Amino acid sequence: xxxLVCLSQVPDTTTKISFTSDNKELNKAGVQYIINPYDELAxxxxxxxxxxxxxxxxxxxxxGGADAEPVLRKALAIGADQAxxxxxxxxxxxxxxxxxxxxxxxxxFDLVLAGRESIDxxxxxxxxxxxxxxxxxxxxxxxxxxxxxxxxxxxxxxxDGGREKLEVNLPAVITCQKxxxxxxxxxxxxxxxxxxxxxxxxxxxGKGADMxxxxxxxxxxxxxxxxxxxxxxxxxxxxxxxQAKVL
Amino acid sequence: MKILVYAEQxxxxxxxxxxxxxxxxxxxxxxxxxxxxxxxxGGQVDTQAAADLGLYGANSVWMPxxxxxxxxxxxxxxxxxxxxxAESGAxxxxxxxxxxxxxxxxxxxxxxxxxxxxxxxxxxxxxADGSWKVQRTVYSNKGIASYAVSxxxxxxxxxxxxxxxxxxxxxxxVTPWNVSVNTGAAKTRSLELQKVQGKIPLTEAERVIxxxxxxxxxxxxxxxxxxxxxxxxxxxCSKPVSDMHWRSHDEHVGQTGITIKPDxxxxxxxxxxxxxxxxxxxxxxxxxxxxxxxxxxFKVADYGVVGDAFEVxxxxxxxxxxxxxx
Lengths: 247, 326
Ligand SMILES: Cc1cc2nc3c(=O)[nH]c(=O)nc-3n(C[C@H](O)[C@H](O)[C@H](O)COP(=O)(O)OP(=O)(O)OC[C@H]3O[C@@H](n4cnc5c(N)ncnc54)[C@H](O)[C@@H]3O)c2cc1C
Ligand SMILES: Nc1ncnc2c1ncn2[C@@H]1O[C@H](COP(=O)(O)O)[C@@H](O)[C@H]1O
Prior knowledge:
By secondary structure, chain A is of the alpha/beta class.
């Protein structure tokens, strides 16, 4: 299959978050960027699907500036065949999805995989919007993906209070949840090969964004912890009941 | 202002988020005056339960006359909501940021050409010029961002549990509503549904008891379950616990698991790694139980017990039993 994987780059999960003095942006000093963990799973799943069927090609796409190229090279090292970067600063989900949709409509993909959400802005929106732009089926939050040969796939997805197994015709957009697979670490050969794999930079279509950040803030700090001894469980319960009013 | 609220149901029962959605719309926009809230039910439910949405501020409720929407298929529901938006003349659509909402809202934002404010954590501040200021958590609960929302069409989805429903009215009329979409428009075919039976869904739970590696093994989970039972709580766990298959994956909370926002979160034998806290730190009240007084969880907890879970849990469970009986 020809599979497209949408990659976003996010601050490493251990990053301590702080903002610039005007609170408009993340303070990027010292922040290490990684492939969004769900997108890494999407990429690995794409590799597995094509290894199982013995053919096809995998493209990764990122909407963003040149600072994301290390992350795209890493995706190539893990095994993607080519990378595409749409050269515009990502502002909101509809803009990003619009740019990717424009790229997809000029190509021929059987399947688009995205992450369940990016762990920076946690929107979980790009996949759904992309599916609507393309008028393709959407399966959100997939925990397993199989098949593909007969033009359809069997997918399990998380839903409120359970899980559903369903069949979806291709082409489709599927967003990936953990459990799908384990991420792959690039090996030396992959890293060498990545240097010569194509990384194409495309001009944006120039779609505008709707949602602009006014300001950021850190979450309100919590009061100091109130401690109880092991034999004081009645006192703790009383505090939860009377003071916190949560029991 | 005309608002359409999409209210979820499952197996003919309104979900908790349905009442929350109606109340969210009422509490958000009451001050603007001349508010008309129409509720589209995402499937057929008991008529009385539907009418009772009026208690929380609905002016009218549309009940699908056909059973087309009873099972959730995102494409059918998206088309039905578009039909209801057109028929109601609403400029604003309100829904919960549940799994269903997360599939629907982005599709509708594109299809209805509306600005989408997704996963907001409280009611918007409405400015005189008609714009709203909304807040949502970003960087996995490590930051909060405010956005300005404007535009003639808007979709607002809110985090479950973000606000307490308030009674403010009386039961309203329930009108049968003809669904013009038919099942042929579905783009996926459901093969099998596995429902978690008899458990409180984690994302809806007001109280959550969560266990970490400190519990030593799955055979000790009855301690967590007993405590959860006495306080009507859902159970959760840290990532290593689900990775080792002590508990199923759907209980894993944190940056790469589920994000929750209960009133009470009790963390037992969980160290409080930044990736874990990312999913739970916006809980209203946090209790940490840990043998290590230096455990990072105590830095974010409101209440703490330095002690052995195997000793603390039975005592805490007993103490809550006494409170409930007393
Ligand atoms: C990319 C990435 C994503 C991640 N995402 C998540 C995530 O979403 N969710 C998540 O939870 N983790 C996540 N992690 C893992 C996270 O970093 C921690 O490793 C994990 O949360 C630790 O789990 P734990 O606290 O149960 O175990 P441990 O760190 O082993 O802590 C066990 C705790 O139990 C205490 N203890 C031991 N015995 C007892 C006893 N008898 N009674 C009471 N206390 C006791 C110990 O003092 C210790 O504090 C992620 C990591 C990475 C790298
Ligand atoms: N700038 C981007 N470029 C490419 N793909 C993206 C970008 N941002 C988000 N995505 C994809 O959309 C998914 C959901 O992102 P989000 O809607 O931001 O939570 C991510 O997991 C990626 O697969």
